[in-house]
Amino acid sequence: MMKNTLKKVLSAFAVALLPVLALSLSACGNHKSNTETKSLYAQGLEIVQLMTEMTQYADVYTGSSEVQSVVQNIGSGDYTTPKAVYAISVSDENVAAMAELMTLGLDGASEELKSCFMQRVFSSFITQINARSGTDKLAAAGICTIEKTFVNENVNENIMYLYTYENADPAVVIFLVGEDHAISASGVFLMYDEFACDSADEVKSFFQNALLGISVEVNEVLPET
User: Fold this and answer.
1) Which of 123, 116, 117 is nearest to 104 (CA)?
2) Over the stretch 147-179, which tens digit does the pLDDT of each residue have?
3) How confident is the model at residue 124 (pLDDT cuts 50, 70, 90)?
4) How far apart are CA 188 and CA 42, in angstroms?
5) Considering only CA atoms, which of 189, 186, 176 is closest in space to residue 146?
6) Over residues 27-42, mean pLDDT
7) Lowest-pLDDT range, 71-85, 101-115, 133-147, 155-169?
8) How far is residue 192's CA from residue 121's CA, in Å, rounded to a whole number?
9) Which SS3 state, helix, strand or coil, does residue 69 take?
10) Are 144 and 188 in contact (CB under 8 A)?
11) CB–CB of 183/71 below 8 Å?
12) Would strands 159-164 and 84-89 be described as parallel, antiparallel, or unpaired?
């Protein structure tokens, strides 16, 4: 009885700790030197490594053996070197069209609020895809999600980087541009088994079908040397 009670207390503490963890990571990102501007490629790699590390602590965040098993399976992959990395962008017009398809009426909203809405829609794309894989995989992806903030004056549009691996699940890092070039980055594993990502054309075709025909741009990002 005492063991079960202790487990419930620890689980509740873990849930309360999640936003604190996210804030801590954000704070770390904000203390980088202004003279050091890492590329999105490098920032994304660091986030994927943190996501991989997070898979070691599934039992802290959930008591579900099914979800823990999914997270452990994610962590068994080799995330050392990406097979390929793709930049995925969607124009503001197409994001707005997607928002309309999701019945988010934006008529009468301020430009600032519209921007917030469209960033939410842009961020929801991967969640929509993961939802196709069932609740356990969706929950596992949520547990492993990592958020971080930093400044990059070279980035002017919201964009996603897709990191693919030979023997591991794909990972997506979403970069959202805020005021004064503040970038909010969120990394999540893409859990949909039927996701095709062997080329830029395959990635583009999949996303356009998944997003009900909304046009996307996909370009391969070459490794940094």
Assistant:
1) 117
2) 999 999 999 999 999 999 999 999 999 999 998
3) confident
4) 16
5) 186
6) 63
7) 101-115
8) 19
9) helix
10) yes
11) no
12) antiparallel
Report the b/e string of 100-133 with b at 16+ CB within 10 A: eeeeeeeeeeeeeebbebbbebbbebbeebbeeb
Of the candidates 128, 117, 125, the one whose C-alpha atom is nearest the C-alpha of residue 174 is 125
In Å, how far are 9, 127, 188 from 117, measured between CA atoms?
A: 36, 16, 20
Structure tokens at 33: 């030197």
What's the one-letter identity of residue 133?
A: S
In the predicted structure, residue 14 carries a pLDDT above the cut 80: no
CA–CA distance, 126 with 141 (Å, rounded to integer): 10
Query: What letter represents residue 70's amino acid?
Result: V
> What is the torsion angle, in degrees rounded to the nearest 10, for the CA atoms of residue 43, residue 155, residue 205 and residue 140?
40
